[in-house]
Every structure is written in C-alpha cells, then in structure tokens.
Amino acid sequence: MKPSARAIEALLSGTHADPFSLLGVHQGPEGAFARAFLPGADEVTACSLKGRKLGTLERVDGRGLFEGAVTGKAQPVKYRCKAGTHEWWVTDAFSFGPVLGPLDDFLINEGTHFRLFDKMGAHCIEHEGVSGVHFAVWAPNARHVAVVGDFNDWDHRRHPMRKRADIGVWEIFVPDVGPGHAYKYRIVGPTGEVLPLKADPFAFASEMRPKTASLTARPAKPDWGDAAHRAHWASVDARREPMAIYEVHPGSWRKPGEDAFHTWDELADLLIPYVVEMGFTHIEFLPVSEHPYDPSWGYQTTGLYAPSARFGGPDGFARFVDGAHRAGISVLIDWVPAHFPTDEHGLARFDGTALYEHEDPRLGFHPDWNTAIYNFGRREVSSFLVNNALFWAEQYHVDGLRVDAVASMLYRDYSREAGEWIPNEQGGRENWEAVAFLQKMNKAVYGSHPGFVTVAEESTAWPGVTLPVGDGGPGATSLGFGFKWNMGFMHDTLQYMAREPIHRRYHHDEITFGLVYAFSENFVLPLSHDEVVHGKGSLLTKMSGDDWQKFASLRAYYGMMWGYPGKKLLFMGQEFAQRREWSEARSLDWELLEAPAHEGVRRWVRDINRAYTSTPAMHARDCEAEGFSWLVVDDALASVFAWLRKAPGHKPVAVVCNMTPAVHDHYRLPLPHDGAWREVLNSDAAVYGGSGRGNMGRITAHDGAALVVLPPLATLYFEYEG
User: How confident is the model at residue 475 (pLDDT cuts 50, 70, 90)?
Assistant: First the structure.
C-alpha cells in the first residue's frame, strides 16, 4: 500500500511516529520492495550485504526518498549511491530487526533488569551479520526520538528510532559505525517541543568539556590480571581487614600543567607506587564519572556510566584499576545518587517531562546545591541507579562505592523549612522510597560481587546504616551498607585539637565520647576533602599553637586516629601537612617535602600505616567492642588518653596520647600484662621532626603498670612482648 502524502511528508521531516513501517525492506503482495532516505544521491542500487544486486531504486521525492522492487525476501540490504562522479555505500539501518527482546521488555518494565548497561546506551555489536552500534534510550513520553551524530551529519532525519511502546524505550541499530563517534539524542517532547540535544544516560564515554556529546565506546577491558586480588577480598570479612584509605582528587593530585591533566596511565605510574610506599591499602577517588564543571569536583555528574574524558578513554581507567589491584591496592570511587544536576544536555526533563526527577520542587529540588532530586520511587529510575552501581563493579572491577550525602536522601525535610516539604504517607519525614532504593542497591552489589564494599556518608543517627537489609516496608530502617563515615569522630576530635592545650582539660569528652557509640556501626574515620575546603584551611592550620606545636599536634592526632577503632581515611596532601587549603585548580604543594617538618609528617603517616596494616591487634577488631578497652580515660588534668587494641590470638597494643606540650617523665600507665612492652612508634621521634624524647625502645610493667615517658604533644604505641 502506497503511503499517503502526509505520511511521506512526516517521514521526510523526521516527525513520523513509526519510520520503520515505511523505511527499509518490506514484503508486499507483489514481492519485496525497499524504501530509503538517501539525501544527496542521484542513483541508488539495492544490494545484499555480500554485494549481490537486488534491484534499482527510483527517486520519488527530490529531498532524497527512493523506492523500488528488490528480489528475494525481506532482508538487510545496502545501497550503492551515485551523484555525478561520486559513489558511496550506505547500509540500511531500517532493514534490520530489533536487538532488544521480550525478556528485556519484561525485566525493564518490572525494574529488575540488572544488566541494563548491556542493553541500554550505545553498544558496538554485530547484528544480523553486520558490525555497527545499537542505540537504546528510555524516553516514554517523547513523540519522536532520533540518534544524531558525526556519522549522519547530525541530521535527525537519517536515524529516527523505533519505539518499544510497552516500556518506552527507543532503539535502532546503525550499521558500519564503530567506537569513537560523537552522538546525542534529538527528542521531541509530548507537546511537540524539540528539546535541547540530550547526552546518552548510559554513555560509556563523553567528549572533553566544554563539549557535551556522548561517544561510542567499548567499556570493558579484556585482559584483567587481578584475579588474586579479587579472590582475596571475596574470601575475607572486610570489617576485620586493614583499611587505610587515601582519598584522591585525580585532577589535582599532580598536574602536568596549569590547565592539563595526567592520563590514567600516567597516574598509574605515579600514584600507585606512591600509595604502596606510603602503606595505604585503598585509593578512594572523588567522582570519576563525567561532569561539565571542574569546581564541582565531580559531584555534579552528568554521565554516570562514563569515566571523565579529562583523563583519557575509559580503557585507561580500567588499566589503572587493574594496575592498582596487581600492586595489592583496592580502588573505591565516590558515587553520587544524591546530586542531580540540571544541565540541559543531561537528565533534567529528559523527554520533556519530569522523568528521572520529581515534578514537585518540595520533593525534587535541593536548596543547598541548586540541583534536582532523583525520583527514587520510580522503578525505572531506581533500576537505572542500581545498574550504575553494578556497572562500576562489573565493567571496571572497582572494589567499592563511597555513597555521597546519604543523609540528604533519607529525609524529606533535609535542609528545608516547614511548608517546604511533603510528609510521607505515615506523616513522617523519612524518605522511604530512597531507603528502599539504597537497600536494593546494597543487596544487588553484595549479592553479585563478593568482596565489594559500600560506604555511606551519613551524618545523622539513622538506625542501622550498616546492618543487613531486613524485611521491607516502611519502618525497615537497616540500609545494608558495609561501612559508615564517622562524622562525629571527625567533628569532635578536630574541635579538640583546635583548642589551646591549656583548655583541653575542660573538653576531655570530645575524645572519649566517641567510644560510647564506636561499635554501633561499622565505622570509617574520615579526614576528608570536606575538611580542607571552603575556608576551613588545611589540617595543619587547624592545630593550635606555634609552628612546632602544630606539627607535633598533627602527628599526635594522626597517631591517635590510627590507634582508634575504625578504618582510616585521609585526604591527599594531608599526609605531608599541606599548608594551603586544597584547590581543585592546582597541584598539591609537593615542594613542601623538601622541608624536614613536612617530610617528618609524611614518614609518620607511612609508618603508622605500616604498623596498622601489619598488626592484627590494631585492625582485626576495628568494628567490634572486644577489640578495645580503656587504660586511662579520666586524666583530663594531664590531657592523657590511653587504651588497649587487641584481637584474639595476637599481641595487644597500648596506644598512649599526651595532648599537652608538657613532658610526663614518670607517668604511671596501667597495663593488663606484666612484662616487656616494645615501643613500636613514637610521634616525637627525631626522624619525624619531634624532640626525640621516649622510652629507649621498651617499657616494663610490674604489678599492673609501667612508668613511662610521655613526650610533648605525642602519641606512642607499645606492643606486648611478654
């Protein structure tokens, strides 16, 4: 049946609701025929994929529409096009069948498809005997969707997409396209408005900012050599393993030039050996996914599935992770489902409606960050995000996710005044949809990737952040994270260290209070990037006193923290006492290491890392009360703290802190075992920049105590020898 003039007009203008019904090869009552849109051609011959002539097409519209009978049955075809002396071939995208199938439809519609990243986005595949790229995008309320890119001159008429009506997914297989091509989606909204071109929500790679197009790419690395590393972490309880995390902003750790970035391969050569030498066990990157604005540090991400183009292609990031694993270093990445930037090329009003976000700003707008909020209660949105978590574990072998701003997700009234938020169905402030999403995410990653860890940045007293997920429904508060940042420890202890030593006796509880709740969750003790930005200064400048006291206090503080129950995290530059506040626009001040005081801090961090990771008593019961007991808890007058770290079957370690500039020459230290205790580390040692006071390497306990020298502003570790 010949299409109507109206249908042809819609087809040629790119507004036809079902272009696959007109274009391609179709079986009619008189045999097969082909119809193709080939602008610029004067003559067109239809051929099989192997080049056998099937028929000649006639131009039926001057804008480039050709029709004609072809021999044989309906099949994929290609066209030999001529215009003057020029000749070229076009493989007909509309002669290929769909790639997605009924099972995909069912699982996508149900929100239980855990391999969406294998189906959605742009995939370089072979389909019906031809290499090309399969594009698929969810836009259920759109009137029309077309993929445009450098392979079709950004002409939306060339590749309008087929709609799978039941699930709202649009797809097309574009033959003869490979990796490295720029593309976007042209979407016409439900009221007929043409939206700004949209990047692919599932894009595996993106253009370098300020450009915003997605790139066709293969994300996987075929030759991983990290099986031993992954097998180890799959076989152990992470709570009982050492975790000393080095938090890194990859764009400013070291910069090759003012406006340049090291590639992942260059970072691998520089960063991995440094982390190994410093004794850290993990690297935690600030968000590595694509983002348009450098000062957002990656937290305003617009390409959740794409490692940022700042550091090269996605294969480079895979090689970095593989290299870290081969060196025994785990890699965590910051994951940001709490931030939803509203850049026009991103997810905001993706199909002309509030698709990924809430329509009502009382539910869907963050006043603190001027961003939208994901609609966690919509199964397609929840599935998109859960799949993203699985994607980083599956495709890039990352060892875990630090989930940013969890508290902002859990409460409907977060940073809102009365009248600016909508209560839940029970009349409360809890965001049960976000709770269900976080539970689903944690169950998915822990269920499919043994050894994977998730870490919550959660700043409230939400119950059960690190408890396994129980029965669902409102009131089921356990979230299923592996660990939680201990924000209270960070706040209280830094506040204590900022006080003049003479005043610390009145605030003794700022150190001791944390042990009241230290084992209520599986904690990471963070000294993160958030503490060295926005006018807060560096950790060194937070310490009280003159320059010598600042350095001594910082070493003592690190020693206290590494001896305290919980996993450790330190932001880059603080391991050598960076003086300036961190800025993403410049490299760390590595030249400071030429100064003995800064080099001393670096050595101290290296050595306490090595002691922490090699001594089971200091890490094997980080998350359990049996691994800790007080030795001195109430000596506020001297500002001395002492406790015992222990683990079954291993020698205990006594941690002793003197937080005053006064030397205690004969301090009576209670100890649980008589005999020799070796002085493992002393932050006041001369090699670290201290005064060199100490205990000659050993103390001896009699009748439950030993007399020890406590140097000024110092932390000491003593291991029991017997």
Answer: low
